[in-house]
Amino acid sequence: LQPKSDIIASARPTTRRRTAQARQSLWLLNDEDDDDSTTYHTDDDEPEPIDADEIFDLIRFISDPEHRSMTLEQLAVVSAPQVTVAPSHILVEFTPTVPHCGMSTLIGLSIRVRLLRALPTRFKVDIRVKPGSHQSEHAVNKQLNDKERVAAALENPALVDVLETCLENVGRRGL
Amino acid sequence: MDIDFSQKILLVSELVGHDDRAWHVSWNPVKPLLATCSTDKSVRLYAYTTDPSPIFALHTSIPTGHSKTVRGIAWSPSGYSLATASFDANIGIWQREEGDDEAEGEWECVSILEGHETECKSVAWSASGIYLASCSRDKTVWVWEAHPDADFECMGVLMEHSQDVKCVAWHPIEEILASASYDDTIKLYLDDPSEDWFCFATLTGHASTVWSLAWAPNGRYLASASDDRTIRIWKRIAEHQWECVLVLEGHDRTVYSVTWGIGKSGETEKGGEPLGWIASTGSDGRINVWALEEPRDSTVRSPPKFTLIARLEDAHGATTKGYEHLIATVGDDGIAKVWKLVST
């Protein structure tokens, strides 16, 4: 085995296609409701700037796990002012409906999954409950921001089923 | 911020192939093989040559049969066996079949270790190769003894942590086991003469989840990486006592992985006894490399001197293993990258 060159590198386009395929392979369904305005995957190297309103648009129509006909926006769980955007970093604060809300982790997870699917991978996303809004604030935040726990949760079919139900209408346009 | 680094981190090889996030990478201690594992449930083995410079090529892809993510991999000290840790709660033990010649044997699963109740996060072999440790979100650490014919006997189920255990790592010389947890602590374990494994020390100090551990090659120090964005260096101040002597900052987000290698021989940065190089990376996509040395006037509790010798931004992911001057990293993009450090 005679080495002929020092560096083996993969061509960029292949890498990006594989990444897109990889993202789809994680999920049971393709996110068919995504329309063009929520596509941030560009073909060139220029990163698209993004603002808080665009992030809010992505998450406002997530259904509440307990009150399925209500959206997180309608329940004031998420709002545009609670989204903070920096060049590659996004912070989403959400307000659980009641301080002992047992669904908080699920709501946080649905926000995370929605953003994971809709945003380019360069964005680091932090999700937290609004300070003071939950009894177990620290515990909920810790789980939602533990990459490994989130990944394992997404390999739990029962949990994914519930998440998919909450995410069914996310691509819906405003009235 | 302008820092003059004494080393540059250069990309040597980019290994595309996993269909999903790659979680861990491990160098075979004896043979020229690099293993990676992934959410795609496979393990990929890359063979490499280093003369005159490193070239990597896919040797084989093992569809492990785990039903969920393969999260961790560990080579036995002999280089002969590979253990896989999976979110399906099981551990797989893999060996290569004897073929007509070295190149022909298939990798086969010779044993499945069951017992954990939830996701298995990490596996590690003791320096002697006699013990295998595993840990899980079920809060336990298991110690298994390896018998001939891939027969593994459970020697202890340690239930000392109050939360998810992220990583296990054995001392490079003695049979001391360390575990790192979501409960923000590190625990150290020994095998008691009456044949029970027990926890003899709990190291507190990190403000959040401890993700990764790396023992210094000389066995006198332990490095830990945490969600609190720091790396702590713990020093052995007595036979069964370890104390934090240094906190390294240098990451903007969670530090997922730390590794401690020999580094390059040669003069030390500050004139002390070389302790090796620590490489770390995490959520911020940055690789940091520090050179550590034991000061000449060191005392029991004195910290090592440290110098940040290299930094690379946007590497992509989680690092492991310093192999002389090569570092391998894997990331959410499913890609494995091999880097070399070159003097500037």
CATH superfamily of the domain at 48-167 in chain A: Fe-S cluster assembly (FSCA)
Radius of gyration of chain B: 19 Å
Total of helices of chain A: 6
Q: What's the number of extended β-strand segments of chain A?
A: 3
CA-based shape of chain B: globular
* Unreliable residue runs of chain A: 1-45
Which structural category fits the helices and strands of chain B? mainly beta
Low-confidence stretches of chain B: 317-323
Helix proportion of chain A: 25-40%
Rounded mean pLDDT score of chain A: 77
Shape, per Cα inertia axes of chain A:
globular
Keywords (chain A): Chromosome partition
Protein name (chain A): MIP18 family-like domain-containing protein
Family (chain A): Belongs to the MIP18 family.
InterPro entries (chain A): FSCA_dom_sf, MIP18
Please describe the topology of this protein.
The complex is a heterodimer of chains A (175) and B (344).
Chain A: H1 12-26, H2 52-59, E1 83-86, E2 89-94, H3 104-118, E3 124-129, H4 137-144, H5 147-153, H6 157-166
Parallel strand pairs in A: 2-3
Antiparallel strand pairs in A: 1-2
Helix pairs in contact in A: 3-4
Chain B: E1 7-15, E2 22-27, E3 33-38, E4 42-49, E5 55-63, E6 70-75, E7 81-86, E8 91-96, E9 107-113, E10 120-125, E11 131-136, E12 141-147, E13 151-158, E14 165-170, E15 177-181, E16 186-191, E17 197-203, E18 210-215, E19 221-226, E20 230-238, E21 241-249, E22 255-261, E23 273-282, E24 287-294, E25 305-312, E26 317-323, E27 326-331, E28 336-343
Antiparallel strand pairs in B: 1-28, 2-3, 3-4, 4-5, 6-7, 7-8, 8-9, 10-11, 11-12, 12-13, 14-15, 15-16, 16-17, 18-19, 19-20, 20-21, 22-23, 23-24, 24-25, 26-27, 27-28
Region (Disordered) (chain A): 1-48
Biased composition (Acidic residues) (chain A): 30-48
GO cellular component, one term (chain A): intracellular protein-containing complex
